[in-house]
Design brief:
Elements (H helix, E strand, L loop, with lengths): L2 E6 L3 H16 L3 E3 L7 E6 L4 H20 L4 E6 H5 L1 H5 L6 E2 L8 H5 L29 E7 L10 H5 L3 E2 L2 H13 L4 E6 L15 H9 L6 E4 L9 H9 L1
Parallel strand pairs: 1-2, 1-3, 3-4, 4-5, 6-8, 8-9
Antiparallel strand pairs: 6-7
């Protein structure tokens, strides 16, 4: 049985995306193993919010390349915000097989078995890259990614350059995944995103975070809905109204 190992740095969204990526490998018959162990594929989902995470990301890439030195058939895959912003620097670290931009993480398994993808500028992405899994490592609650990207461009923050423009997940796909997870026994759900309060705003369809929450609340079996952090200015009357009545 082939084995896949992954290491994730940074936010909950990155952790969720890694779980979805590994789910694709599991469905294809791969066994998940720890990053320190021998594997056929090593995946580094990098982060760049601090110098420390930059260092950790580079260090993990080098560790994977050490395994590859002894076995050239090993595949090394790098993705995440550090790779997005520092593509050329990552490439210089060694014979990495695949560097995947942040909006194509959902296709990593396919890329390994087909032609290599073109690494794209994240600001050219305007559609949410659908990532879903029924296999959540945390058995107590399920984290669901519903939003990606940010257009605030705060002076201290590199995230918009790693994640691109705001992009919101289709509510039909959110409902579908939540129903699947309810059927698997989950009762508590955490909604997350790069800037969760921006959910739906780029689509101008008047279906924003409060509307999504109202629909989720109606799904039988959903007992607790948690929200990851929201910027204070994105709390509006509609969201407060939902929170009062929920």
């Amino acid at each position: 049985m082939k084995k896949v190992a992954a290491v994730t740095f940074g936010c909950k969204v990155n952790q969720y995306e890694t779980a979805c990526i590994l789910d694709d490998f599991q469905k294809a018959g791969y066994e998940i193993t720890e990053f320190k162990n021998q594997a056929d594929v090593y995946i580094i989902n990098s982060c760049t919010v601090t110098n420390r995470t930059d260092y950790k990301s580079r260090n993990a890439i080098r560790k994977a390349l050490e395994f590859k030195k002894n076995n050239p058939d090993i595949k090394v895959v790098v993705t995440g915000c550090y790779a997005q912003i520092n593509h050329d620097k990552v490439k210089e670290l060694g014979p990495i097989d695949l560097i995947v931009d942040n909006n194509q993480k959902n296709r990593i398994f396919d890329f390994l078995n087909n032609d290599l993808p073109e690494f794209t500028d994240i600001f050219s992405a305007f559609d949410f890259a659908e990532l879903s899994t029924a296999n959540i490592p945390d058995k107590a609650r399920a984290f669901i990614k519903v939003q990606d990207g940010c257009n605030y461009f705060c002076a201290y923050c590199a995230v918009p350059y790693g994640r691109g423009n705001p992009r919101s997940r289709d509510p039909i796909n959110v409902m579908k995944q939540v129903k699947t997870l309810v059927a698997s026994g989950y009762k508590e759900f955490v909604l997350g995103g790069i800037n969760l309060g921006l959910y739906g705003l780029e689509k101008r369809e008047k279906y924003y975070l409060p509307e999504l929450l109202r629909d989720l609340e109606q799904i039988e079996g959903v007992e607790i809905i948690r929200l990851s952090s929201i910027e204070p200015q994105l709390f509006n009357d509609e969201l407060f109204d939902f929170l009062r009545k929920s």
